[in-house]
């Protein structure tokens, strides 16, 4: 069974996301392979993520050793978030190595944000997007550090 979300790009960030967020260190898995038909290899390490959501819709962040800046955030319009578990998708774009022995020099990263159950806590999945595939690299819990980003 394949679940796919339908997305609508947001014009403004939701008020609940505005501010600085930081995760605890968590384990991530990077997958790579030599050719299209070879088996995947997995390399793991732990990283933290820092996110800054600024009005109207600028998102900057650090993902391990890599960084990004984007204005691309989508609201999940497919299955309801209570079914899919995803409220928003932040398209981080191409991000460099996440840790020292990361086998990929660059990868297209998305953060899949889950519905907020507490205003100062955010849960998300880090995904590596390759064609239609969105490989789950790791799960993170963020704590809001500030309501404003300088």
How would you describe this structure to a colleague?
The chain is an all-beta fold and 150 residues long. Helices cover 3% and strands 56% of the residues. It has a single domain (7-146), classed as Beta Barrel (Lipocalin). The longest helix has 4 residues, at 81-84. The protein has one helix and twelve strands, in the order ββββββββαββββ. The chain has a ten-stranded antiparallel beta sheet, with no helix packed on it.
Summarize the structure in short.
The protein has 150 residues and is mainly beta. It contains 1 helix and 12 strands.
SSE inventory with pairings:
Blueprint: E1 7-9, E2 19-23, E3 26-32, E4 41-47, E5 49-54, E6 58-63, E7 66-70, E8 73-76, H1 81-84, E9 88-96, E10 106-113, E11 121-130, E12 133-146
CATH domain class: Mainly Beta
Strand neighbour order, sheet with most strands: 1-8-9-10-11-12-2-5-6-7
Helix run count:
1
How many structural domains in the coordinates? 1
């Amino acid at each position: 069974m394949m679940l796919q979300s339908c997305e609508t790009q947001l014009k403004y960030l939701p008020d609940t996301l505005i501010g600085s967020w930081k995760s605890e260190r968590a384990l991530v898995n990077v997958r790579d392979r030599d050719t299209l038909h070879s088996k995947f290899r997995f390399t793991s390490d732990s990283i933290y993520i820092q996110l800054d959501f600024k009005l109207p819709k600028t998102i900057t962040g650090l993902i391990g050793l890599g960084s990004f800046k984007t204005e691309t955030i989508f609201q999940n319009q497919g299955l309801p978030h209570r079914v899919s578990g995803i409220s928003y998708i932040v398209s981080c774009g191409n991000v460099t190595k996440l840790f020292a022995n990361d086998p990929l020099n660059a990868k297209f990263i998305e953060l899949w944000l889950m519905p907020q159950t507490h205003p100062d806590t955010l849960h998300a999945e880090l995904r590596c997007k390759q064609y239609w595939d969105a490989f789950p690299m790791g799960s993170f819990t963020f704590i809001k550090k500030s309501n404003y980003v300088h």
